[in-house]
Design brief:
Elements (H helix, E strand, L loop, with lengths): L7 H7 L10 H11 L12 H6 L5 H15 L3 H35 L3 E6 L2 E6 L8 E5 L7 E13 L1 H4 L5 E2 L18 E2 L4 E13 L5 H4 L13 H30 L4 H15 L4 H18 L2 E3 L3 H6 L4 E5 L10 E7 L2 E5 L10 E3 L2 E3 L5 H12 L4 E5 L2 E5 L2 H12 L4 H7 E10 L4 E8 L4 E7 L1 H6 L1 E6 L2 E4 L2 H16 L3 E10 L9 H4 L3 E10 L6 H10 L3 E5 L4 H10 L8 E4 H5 L3 H7 L3 E5 L3 H13 L4 E5 L5 H6 L2 E5 L5 H6 L2 E3 L4 H41 L8 H19 L25 H26 L4 H22 L15 H19 L4 H4 L6 H20 L3 H4 L1
Parallel strand pairs: 9-23, 9-26, 19-22, 23-25, 24-25, 26-27, 27-28
Antiparallel strand pairs: 1-2, 1-3, 3-7, 4-5, 4-6, 4-7, 8-28, 10-11, 10-22, 11-12, 12-13, 14-15, 16-17, 17-18, 18-21, 19-20, 21-22
Helix pairs in contact: 4-5, 4-9, 5-10, 5-26, 8-9, 8-10, 8-25, 9-25, 9-26, 10-25, 12-13, 16-19, 18-25, 21-22, 25-26, 25-27, 25-28, 26-28, 26-29, 27-28, 27-31, 28-29, 28-31
């Protein structure tokens, strides 16, 4: 099909779609099943079998398998079978971890997929773009990413940036007119839009003609292969740490083996012990546990309505020192309601809240019908005509489809008995000049039933009033004199002092010569001001507490808004964002300042009012130059540079454009500021949990190495046999370490300042904790062995079992100490049920290995006598409880 050549009617017939109702849902599902999802085909993933086999590629595991082969050749079949079983079990756990991480990331990808507005069953609804099918009717506007190849059936000032396909960065003006020339390039198909391109201005409606790999983007899919495996800064640090640990562990292992051989121990036994020790010493599961901890944390964040698109953001959240947040919808409810209307020198009050079209019009304390005032009905009518928003009933509730400001104007008109359907019968919109943040206004050209045409403009009062030559005053058109101009400015300030957002509405009759070819500049000059509406978007109830919590956490909250300075100041004071000496900067002042000048005062500024999205980039740079880690929110196309430049870019899940979402690292599902605070809390906790299990794993590994090293130096028999070391490494280290990743946040996590972004893994005394606990675990394990062995030198297996029990128990007690930066006594041990379950499981498995006869010869264990459990329990408690109250903990702090 040559889609660009066909008329709209021919296109609709070719794709078997209905312009009145769109596709029926049942038909759409049939097409989806037949044609598949509307997405690029990904490279084939490794199968579950390959993923499982990859668990055994680790160098130390390969060395262990060679050692197992040697055991079998030497006739040590029980050891060989035990080691193989442990390696397989370790592989299964690694496989489960990777699959869990993979599924978590898949779920994230699904959640962060762009959505499109599609017309099905006669209603507009939002669906993931991957569910689009040929024949779907889709609407799009400024900031949206086009979800499929479409033939345009309606265009209103529509401009699309197609550089991903054509390399041409200048947006292309689009229309719906058929093009007769068949052989033209993509850049010349101005009546079509293509998957992956961006709407930069205006709005439009199109019908889908190609999806998935059949789109123009699908034909050059290699250009879109942007998916990459992201390694977070923390994972990079851990990878470097792992390399260092491998070298240290191998050197210590070689030292242990050499000392053992020199002292007359069997070479094979020492070789196997050395390999087992190396495997135990190197926390090869650490990167996998980090990935799982991050992904599990991310899943928790999803439940709290924040979607992480980029894993490094999880770590960066803990460092945030400034949150620059939009006001509208993020700090407020985004349910604008007109409460005041000023027309021709009179102020009217309007009752009712939200989008329910019920309320009264008041002049003073008197209730009146708006029909009594012609100018009032005119501002209400023209406000509805210049708004694309619609109010619909859904499940006994009134739902807004469109912009909240326009929604407020529509609801105000509905309260006066007006309906869009009746207005459209009286006036037809023949041209639109969409709103943009630079000129801060929009306008439409309408034609009445008699053929007369008018310009209706709405926008920021300070901008719109400057474009007006006349004003409606007491029902008459009068020249906009200096006195009237002053009265209007006083009214704007009066409304702003009440924290109301003000929108001015003006009009202009057009002559017969001024047709639909009139330019935007001509249309929006020499207007007649009808009046000004004052509307409020009340603050969200939960934001005030969230702001207070952020302040306690050492995070400064900055409000950024396009609203009037007085409105911004009032809302900021109500939310306790603006302290008594805090500064408010407006957009004009900001424009006249260099980044350096802004830097010098920015720590005192808490509110930026009347700013355009372009100003946000300057604000981000100034805060960053002052050493802050900045979180910046945004929802529009123009917000994308600032979102991308910030340390944590945050986009809105409801009002955010696809461009803003793709530039961000975090999406707020509910557009709520309090969700940012929750995300920061969760981000801090994830990082702290990673520190916890690093502390636990490395301290345990240090203890395992030292017990063997000290035994060799003291010319003692091996206190642990190789299979016991491997068992401790798998069971005792693995399960509790994973449970630490699920630890709930400490009570003070939002009561301390942000973490410095350059803070090392071993900061805040972590290195000391690892070495001191590890040293004591190794010492106490060896002491248990020496006491029991000295009592009965003929029973080496009993002494080794006692040492094995002490090592396991010491590590299981240590895991509770790792839950707090201060002391084991700081936290309720039962507040993490996963940890309790992991510790009980590890204890039971230890007891099974010791007391279950079939396993005793495999693990070289014998039953422990009751009285020796007192010795084991006492010595295994020393590493944790001695340091919990000793002078050594001073260094921990």
């Amino acid at each position: 099909m040559i889609w660009h050549k066909l008329t709209i009617q021919e296109v609709m017939e070719s794709v078997h779609s209905n312009a009145e109702r769109g596709l029926e849902e049942e038909e759409a599902q049939k097409r989806l099943k037949k044609d598949g999802y509307n997405e690029m085909q990904e490279a084939e993933r490794a199968s579950a079998f390959i993923l499982f086999i990859s668990q055994f590629k680790d160098f130390m595991v390969l060395v262990l398998l060679v050692a197992t082969l040697v055991s079998a050749l030497l006739g040590e079949y029980i050891d060989a079978i035990a080691i193989i079983a442990i390696v397989l079990l370790n592989g299964v756990l690694g496989f489960i971890q990777e699959r869990k991480a993979e599924k978590s990331l898949d779920a994230l990808k699904e959640l962060s997929a762009p959505f499109v507005s599609v017309y099905r069953n006669g209603e507009w609804t939002k669906i993931p773009s991957k569910q689009l099918v040929v024949g779907d009717i889709v609407k799009f506007s400024s900031g949206d990413r086009i979800g499929a190849d479409m033939r345009i059936i309606e265009a209103n000032g529509l401009e699309v940036e197609e550089s991903a396909l054509t390399g041409e960065s200048v947006p292309v003006l689009k229309n719906e007119v058929p093009i007769m020339n068949e052989d033209i390039g993509i850049g010349d198909k101005v009546n079509m839009v293509f998957m992956g391109t961006l709407v930069t201005r205006g709005s439009g409606v199109g019908v889908v003609v190609h999806t998935g790999m059949k789109t123009a983007m699908g034909q050059i899919a290699n250009l879109l292969q942007t998916a990459e495996t992201m390694m977070t800064p923390l994972q990079r640090k851990l990878e470097q740490l792992g390399k260092i640990l491998i070298v240290v562990a191998l050197l210590l292992t070689v030292l242990v083996v050499l000392i053992g051989i020199i002292q007359g121990h069997d070479m094979y036994k020492m070789f196997l012990a050395g390999v087992s020790l190396a495997v135990a010493a190197i926390p090869e599961g650490l990167p996998a546990i980090v990935t799982v901890a991050l992904s599990l944390g991310v899943q928790r964040m999803i439940k709290k309505k924040s979607i992480v698109r980029k894993l490094p953001a999880v770590e960066t959240l803990g460092c945030a020192s400034v949150i620059c947040s939009d006001k509208t919808g993020t700090m407020t409810q985004n349910k604008m309601t007109v409460t005041h209307i000023w027309v021709g020198g009179k102020m009217w009050g309007v009752t009712g809240t939200g989008y329910e079209p019920s309320g009264e019009f008041l002049t003073g304390d008197r209730t009146v019908h708006p029909n009594e005032d012609k100018a009032l009905m005119q501002i209400l009518s023209f406000g509805m005509l210049a708004s694309q928003a619609e109010i619909r009933m859904k499940a006994s509730d009134y739902i807004l489809d469109g912009d909240p400001t326009e929604g407020a104007l529509v609801v105000a008109g509905m309260k006066a008995g007006l309906t869009k359907e009746k207005l459209v019968e009286q006036f037809s919109v023949i041209k639109e000049f969409p709103f943009d943040s630079t000129r801060k206004m929009m306008s439409v050209i309408v034609q009445d039933q008699g053929g007369k045409r008018y310009v209706i403009a709405k926008g920021a009062p300070d901008v719109l009033v400057s474009n007006c030559h006349d004003v409606l005053w007491d029902g008459r058109k009068e020249s906009l004199s200096n006195r009237k101009h002053t009265d209007i400015q006083d009214t704007i300030e009066q409304l702003a002092n009440r924290a109301l957002r003000t929108i001015a509405i003006a009009y202009k009759p057009l002559t017969n010569e001024q047709g639909s070819n009139i330019t935007q500049w001509e249309a929006e000059r020499n207007l007649t001001l009808i009046g000004i509406t004052g509307m409020i978007d009340p603050p969200r109830k939960e934001v005030k507490k969230a702001v207070a919590d952020c302040k306690q956490a050492g995070i400064k909250t900055v409000m950024i808004t396009g609203d009037h300075v007085m409105t911004a100041r009032a809302i900021a004071k109500e939310l306790n964002i603006l302290p008594p000496n805090g500064k408010v900067l407006d957009g004009q002042t900001l424009s006249n300042m260099t980044v350096e000048e802004l830097e010098s005062v920015i720590d005192e500024v808490y509110v930026f009012a009347r700013v355009s999205p372009e100003h946000k980039l300057k604000i981000v740079k100034a805060f960053q130059n002052r050493g802050h880690v900045v979180a910046m929110t945004g929802d529009g196309v123009n917000d994308a540079p600032a979102i991308k430049a910030s340390d944590i870019g945050i986009s809105m899940g409801i009002t955010g454009t696809d461009v803003a979402k793709e530039a961000s690292s975090l999406i707020l599902v509910d557009d709520n500021f309090a969700t940012i605070q929750d995300a920061i809390k969760e981000g801090r906790n994830i990082y702290e949990n990673i520190r916890k299990f690093i502390r636990y794993l490395l301290a345990s590994n240090v203890g395992e190495i030292l017990v063997m090293l000290f035994a060799m130096i003291l010319a003692l028999p091996l206190p642990l046999v190789p299979v016991q070391i491997l068992w401790v490494n798998l069971v005792t280290d693995g399960l509790p370490a994973m449970a630490l990743g699920l630890d709930p946040a400490e009570g003070n996590v939002m009561k301390r300042g942000p973490r410095h972004p350059k803070e090392g893994i071993f900061a805040r005394g972590l290195g000391w904790k690892i070495l001191s606990r590890g040293f004591l675990i190794g010492t106490m394990t060896l002491l248990t062995f020496m006491i029991v062995y000295a009592r009965d030198p003929e029973n080496l297996a009993y002494a080794q079992t006692a040492a094995f029990s002490t090592l396991v128990l010491a590590q299981l007690i240590l895991v509770f100490d790792c839950r707090s930066e201060k002391s084991i006594f700081e936290r309720n041990p039962f507040s993490n049920p996963y940890l309790i379950a992991a510790v009980i499981s590890s204890l039971l498995l230890m007891l099974v290995v010791i007391y279950y006869p079939p396993l005793q010869p495999i693990f070289h264990t014998v039953p422990i006598q009751k009285h020796d459990w007192l010795l084991i329990a006492a010595l295994s408690s020393v590493p944790t409880f001695l340091l919990a109250g000793s002078l050594l903990t001073r260094k921990d702090k």
